[in-house]
Amino acid sequence: MDKEKLVSELQFKAVRSSGAGGQNVNKVASKVVLQFDLKNSAAFSAEEKELVLGKLENKLTKEGVLILNCDEDRSQLRNKEIVIKRFLLIIEGALKVQKLRKPTKIPRSVIERRLKEKRSQSDIKQSRRKPKF
């Protein structure tokens, strides 16, 4: 994965932020919307693209576009930096291949200890019952 190539394919749009903030919110377009077309990206190989598409299928639109927003800061430039950093973290996380879990065998001593504990618990409960004549 080439980060420079990836960042060059990003599309940014500046829009007005929502919420409280007074005149700054009403006048300045500080919210940054990042769009990345994953299906038409040349930054990934075919295998990488399939892996990312599979892991990010809930975050993609029907056309295969990833959309991220950031309106945390008053500065448009700072919001752009934050959203790029967030995007790179998401892509790196999606490209990680999870190790296969090796199922382990339960040790015999653990099984025996569990059965012994069950027997002793059973004996305790048996002793609480009324005797049968």
TrEMBL record:
Residues 16-32 form the Prokaryotic-type class I peptide chain release factors domain. Gene3D superfamilies: 3.30.160.20. GO terms for biological process: rescue of stalled ribosome. GO terms for molecular function: peptidyl-tRNA hydrolase activity; ribosome binding; translation release factor activity. This is Peptide chain release factor 1. It comes from Flavobacterium enshiense DK69. The lineage of its organism: Bacteria, Pseudomonadati, Bacteroidota, Flavobacteriia, Flavobacteriales.
